[in-house]
Design brief:
The protein is α/β, with parallel strands linked by helices and 544 residues long. It contains 17 helices and 28 strands.
Length: 544
C-alpha cells in the first residue's frame, strides 16, 4: 500500500472518477519522518531517486539511502546552529544533493528557500535581505559561489555558507561534512502548520513575493502526482524543472513519493532534445511532465517511439495545437494540461484523455472548489471572462495546498483573500463542457470597444503563423476603442521584419478572430522583456 492512502479522503462516482478529495494528518506531520523514514523502515530498498548527468555519471538512491543521508545532513546543519524556523537558501540546480538537503531541512524544522543558480548577486541580495537567512547551500559549478559571496558582502549578513563536492574559499564542503556525520537522528518535533518552504514568485508585475507553504503542502500534491501525472507505483516519473522553481515540488518530490513512484532527475545545463529522449528510454520513464517549449523541441527533433511512457502532462505556458497533434501522432499519448501557481498546488487539470481539447486548462481539481468570478466577486456565465478563484468548501476552512502567508506582507495576503475567497489574479473562460481556458493575468484583460478580450487566445492564433517564434499581446491606449490590441512579435531566425510581413501576419490572425479581437498594431522586437523564470513582463510592454 502506498503512503498517500494513509493521508487521503477520496470519493469516486459510479464510473470510478475522483469527484472529491481531502487530506487528513496528525498535528506533527513531517514529510521527512512520516514519508521518507516510513518507506525506509518498511521497504528500505524501494527506489526513490534516479539521477544522471550529461557526462555519463549516474546514481540511484533507495528510500533507506535518502533517510540515512538526510539524517547525516541534518546533523551537520544542527551542529552549525540551524534549527526550527531558520531559513536556508538552496541553489543546487538539478544535483542529487538537493533531495538530501531538502529532507534534512524538513526534519529539523528549518525553512528551505529554493532558488535558481541563474540569479545575479543583486537578486541574491534581495532574497537575503527579505528572508533573514541563517545559511546558504549552493552548487559548486560556474561562478555561483562568487556571486553568493558578493551578495553576502553587500548585505553584511553573518550566515553559514556551504557548497558541494569540492572546496571553495569562503565555503564549507557539505559533501565532506555529510560523509563524516552520524546517521542517527532522534525525531525533532515540528508542527504541521509550521513554515516549511519559501518560494519567491517570478515578479512579472513587481518585485518577487515570498510565498510560504507549511508542512501540509506535500500532502496536497497527491492529486498532482496521482491523478494528473498519473504516476505508477514503483514506476519512474520525470518532470523537467530545476529545483529553484516550485514546479520541482510539483513533479520531482512530494506527490510522486507519496504515491509510491521514484523520480528521475536529468542534470543538464543546455537542453538537448535527443539526449532527453535517450534518458527517457534508457531509464524506462513511465510518466513525464514538461513545459510546452520542451515538447516543441522534442517533436521538431524527430521524436521516435517512447515505449515505456504511459502518460504525459504539460503546464506553464501556451501549448500549440500542432505540438499536441504531432506528439500524439508520434507516441499515441495526449498531452494533458494543468494549471496552478507558486501559491497553490494543481488547481485545474486534464484528468482524462477522453476527447481532450488542446489548449484547455482542464477542469477543477476535486481537491478544490473553483469558480470564475467578475470584479464584484459574482460568477460569470459560460464563455465570459472571469478571474480564477478558490472558494473554501466549508466557510472558514482553509484549503490545503494554498500558501499560508506572504513573507512580511500581511496586507497583500488579505488582499488576495478578500471576501473569504482566494483570488489567483489569472483570468479564464469556461465552455459548456465545464473546461477552463486560460486568458492571461486578470490585469492583462484588454477592454476594447466595449468588449473584454483575453490575450491568450490571440497569442495562440499568432503562434500558428510559421514566421512567428514568440509573441505577446497587450492593450494600448486608443481614443476610439479605449484600448487597441497590439501584438509584439519575435520572428523566427532568418526572417526580416518588414511592412509586407506585418500586414500578412495581421491578416492571417484577424481572419481567424472575431472582429472585436482584431489586432490593430504590430511591433517586431528581437527579444521579450522576461523574468528570470522566462515569463513575459507585459507591464513593461504596456509602458512601451
Amino acid at each position: 500500500m502506498t503512503i498517500d492512502r494513509k493521508y487521503s479522503r477520496e470519493t469516486f462516482d459510479a464510473d470510478g472518477r475522483l469527484i472529491d478529495f481531502g487530506i487528513t494528518y496528525p498535528e506533527n506531520f513531517n514529510f521527512g519522518y512520516d514519508v521518507v523514514d516510513v518507506y525506509a523502515a518498511e521497504e528500505p530498498d524501494k527506489r526513490a531517486l534516479v539521477w544522471c548527468d550529461t557526462e555519463g555519471s549516474e546514481k540511484q538512491f533507495s528510500f533507506a539511502d535518502i533517510s540515512r543521508l538526510s539524517n547525516k545532513c541534518a546533523n551537520v546543519l544542527l551542529e552549525a546552529g540551524i534549527g526550527r524556523g531558520d531559513k536556508v537558501l538552496a541553489a543546487l540546480k538539478k544535483h542529487y544533493e538537493y533531495w538530501i538537503v531538502v529532507i534534512a531541512l524538513h526534519k529539523i524544522g528549518a525553512v528551505i528557500i529554493p532558488v535558481t543558480h541563474m540569479l545575479t548577486a543583486k537578486d541574491y541580495v534581495y532574497r537575503i535581505e527579505c528572508a533573514d537567512i541563517k545559511g546558504f547551500i549552493c552548487t559548486h559549478q560556474g561562478d555561483v559561489c562568487d556571486r553568493v559571496l558578493e551578495a553576502v558582502r553587500q548585505t553584511g549578513i553573518s550566515c553559514r555558507l556551504w557548497t558541494i563536492r569540492q572546496e571553495h574559499e569562503g565555503f564549507e564542503n557539505l559533501s565532506e561534512a555529510i560523509e563524516k556525520a552520524s546517521d542517527k537522528l532522534e525525531r525533532i518535533e515540528t508542527n504541521a502548520h509550521d513554515p516549511m518552504a519559501l518560494y519567491f514568485t517570478s515578479g512579472t508585475t513587481g518585485l518577487p513575493k515570498g510565498v510560504i507553504h507549511d508542512h501540509t503542502y506535500p500532502l496536497a500534491h497527491i492529486v498532482t502526482a496521482k491523478y494528473w501525472h498519473r504516476v505508477v507505483e514503483n514506476g519512474l516519473h520525470f518532470t523537467v524543472a530545476e529545483t529553484g522553481w516550485a514546479k520541482s515540488s510539483w513533479g520531482k518530490l512530494y506527490g510522486q513519493w507519496l504515491a509510491g513512484s521514484a523520480v528521475m532527475v536529468f542534470d543538464f545545463d543546455n537542453f538537448d532534445p535527443k539526449m532527453m529522449i535517450q534518458v527517457i528510454n534508457k531509464y524506462k520513464v513511465t510518466t513525464f511532465c514538461a513545459p510546452p517549449t520542451v515538447y516543441r523541441y522534442l517533436v521538431r527533433s524527430g521524436l521516435r517511439e517512447l515505449p515505456t511512457l504511459r502518460h504525459a502532462t504539460t503546464a506553464g505556458e501556451l501549448l500549440n495545437p500542432e505540438v499536441f497533434r504531432k506528439f500524439k501522432e508520434k507516441t499515441g499519448l495526449s498531452l494533458c494540461e494543468g494549471y496552478g501557481q507558486t501559491e497553490t498546488t494543481l488547481l485545474t487539470g486534464v484528468f482524462t484523455e477522453e476527447n481532450p481539447a488542446p489548449g484547455s486548462m482542464g477542469v477543477p481539481s476535486p481537491q478544490y472548489r473553483i469558480a470564475l468570478l467578475d470584479r464584484e466577486c459574482k460568477p460569470v456565465k459560460a464563455g465570459e471572462i472571469g478571474e480564477v478563484c478558490v472558494i473554501p468548501k466549508k466557510e472558514g476552512e482553509y484549503p490545503a495546498g494554498i500558501f499560508s502567508s506572504y513573507l512580511d506582507n500581511s496586507e497583500l495576503f488579505e488582499e488576495v483573500w478578500r471576501g473569504g475567497v482566494y483570488h489567483t489574479g489569472d483570468s479564464a473562460t469556461m465552455d459548456e463542457a465545464g473546461r477552463y481556458w486560460f486568458n492571461g493575468r486578470f490585469d492583462d484583460i484588454i477592454k476594447t470597444g466595449g468588449y473584454r478580450v483575453g490575450p491568450y487566445e490571440i497569442e495562440n492564433v499568432l503562434m500558428e503563423h510559421p514566421d512567428v517564434l514568440e509573441c505577446s499581446v497587450v492593450g494600448v491606449p486608443d481614443d476610439r476603442r479605449g484600448q487597441a490590441i497590439k501584438a509584439i512579435i519575435v520572428l523566427r531566425k532568418g526572417v526580416e521584419p518588414e511592412h509586407a510581413l506585418e500586414k500578412q501576419i495581421k491578416d492571417f490572425a484577424n481572419s481567424k478572430l472575431s472582429d472585436y479581437k482584431w489586432i490593430r498594431l504590430i511591433e517586431f522586437v528581437s527579444e521579450m522583456p522576461k523574468t528570470i523564470s522566462g515569463k513575459v513582463m507585459k507591464t513593461e510592454q504596456r509602458k512601451g
